[in-house]
Amino acid sequence: MLTKREQSLLDALEPMAQEQGIEIVMLEIVGAKKSPTIRVYIDTEHGVSFDELSSAQAWINDIMDEIDPFPGAYMLEVSSPGIDRPLRTLEHFGRFEGSAAVIKASSPVNGRSTFTGTLAGVEGQTVKIDCDGTMFEVPYAAIKKANLKGTVDFR
Question: What is the CATH topology of the domain spanning 4-79?
Fold first, then answer.
């Protein structure tokens, strides 16, 4: 799910994140190649406050300055994962069992590449998702992108 460059940046940030009690939910590099944006989504057991975002932005920026991942300019964004939280690890899929999610596969699995339904657990290296009463087993290695499908109740 992560490119080699994204994984190397995540690997550089993980030790400090663990020290700070922060989970790096996802890291992505988007935008123009000349001045990309590095997005880092963080979370904690009790959610993410503005102060935690500000503090994380500072130490993440320090590490990025140290490793200088891109020659020239880049933008750094640090935020909470939001209502459509990205799912990156097998642990994420297991933790959110019973939640609505969207999984996009890099190649078709049982004739389809997009699965929208309810997460039904993890078995080995396979993620199970119930799509309208049909159970699909998606190999973790085939998942290109996945996220929770947030809902808002306006009542």
Answer: GMP Synthetase; Chain A, domain 3 (3.30.300)
